């Protein structure tokens, strides 16, 4: 379902945001501090600071559907993956180190746009961090151009 | 939250200049979330903002079905994050707000060498239901 070309793309220091929705139909955008995609199972593991998940967990108890948008910040190439929430756990030390590396690279990109690297790093990255998994069910091309939103695979 | 703690839209002006793109999440009528970047959150008055839409996409379809939208706005001065809960009211394709947003968007496009993809198609007006620092 997920195109093979996405596997390498997703290893870059992209911008990652999740979203959940409760039965009140109010959605919650949630900043991710890294992701890992397993192409064999088509399961995403998304790393999220616990402080950003309060509303998200309330939503997931009511509605297990998740959306993940990934964006390359120079080209704005962007994809949205929708799927079903599976589980959460606390991150391992190795996963926290992985996120520190991701945040360094991601903050460097933000710094190249003139933003404070430390400012945005501090805004987004908070310990403890959780690992959420979800199974992909739909993929959409979300790059900013006419006709965007086209379904890539379902 | 006490009255003194309430965050007023007028106090958010630095975050409403489009310096750091805003992330927005919406939901379709069947509760499926959608999340995307937008270029502008434009101050209209003390109770309203306008969001820029360059593409008639899933976000637009969702707010026609379900008017609630959540935006995460980042202050470019202190790098604080704010959660805006918004309720869609109407879409404007001309007029004072549209013209002002179009000029601001052109400036952002020029700064980012993205002139081709920053064409404003509508200024969507939202009531600000709440603002909360995350």
From TrEMBL, chain A:
Mind telling me what this protein is named? Answer: Pyridoxamine 5'-phosphate oxidase putative domain-containing protein
The species is: Chryseolinea lacunae
**InterPro entries, from UniProt?**
Split_barrel_FMN-bd
Automatic annotation (TrEMBL), chain B:
What's the superkingdom here?
A: Bacteria
Q: Which Pfam families match?
A: PNPOx_N (PF01243)
User: Domain named Pyridoxamine 5'-phosphate oxidase N-terminal: which ranges?
Assistant: 22-126
Residues in a coiled coil are none
Protein name in UniProt: Pyridoxamine 5'-phosphate oxidase family protein
Q: What is the lineage of its organism?
A: Bacteria, Pseudomonadati, Bacteroidota, Cytophagia, Cytophagales
């Amino acid at each position: 379902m997920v195109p093979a070309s996405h596997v390498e793309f997703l290893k870059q220091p992209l911008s990652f945001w999740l979203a959940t929705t409760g039965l009140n139909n109010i959605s919650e955008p949630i900043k991710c501090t890294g992701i890992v995609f397993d192409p064999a199972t088509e399961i995403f593991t998304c790393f999220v600071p616990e402080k950003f998940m309060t509303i998200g967990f309330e939503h997931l108890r009511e509605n297990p559907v998740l959306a993940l948008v990934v964006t390359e910040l120079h080209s704005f190439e962007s994809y949205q993956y929708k799927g079903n929430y599976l589980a959460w756990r606390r991150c391992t030390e190795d996963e926290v180190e992985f996120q520190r590396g991701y945040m360094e690279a991601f903050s460097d990109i933000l710094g190249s746009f003139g933003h404070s690297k430390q400012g945005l790093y501090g805004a987004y990255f908070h310990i403890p961090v959780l690992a959420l998994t979800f199974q992909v069910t739909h993929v959409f091309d979300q790059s900013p151009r006419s006709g965007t939103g086209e379904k890539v695979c379902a | 939250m006490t009255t003194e703690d309430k965050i007023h839209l007028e106090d958010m002006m630095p975050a409403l200049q489009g310096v750091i793109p805003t992330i927005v999440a919406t939901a379709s009528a069947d509760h499926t979330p959608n999340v995307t970047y937008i270029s502008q959150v434009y101050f209209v008055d003390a109770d309203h903002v306008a969001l820029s839409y360059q593409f008639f996409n899933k976000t637009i379809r969702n707010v026609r079905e379900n008017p609630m939208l959540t935006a995460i706005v980042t202050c470019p001065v202190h790098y604080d994050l704010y959660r805006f809960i918004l309720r869609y009211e109407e879409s404007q394709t001309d007029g004072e707000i549209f013209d002002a947003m179009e000029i601001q968007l052109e400036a952002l496009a020029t700064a980012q060498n993205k002139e081709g993809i920053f064409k404003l198609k509508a200024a969507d007006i939202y009531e600000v239901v709440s603002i909360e620092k995350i």
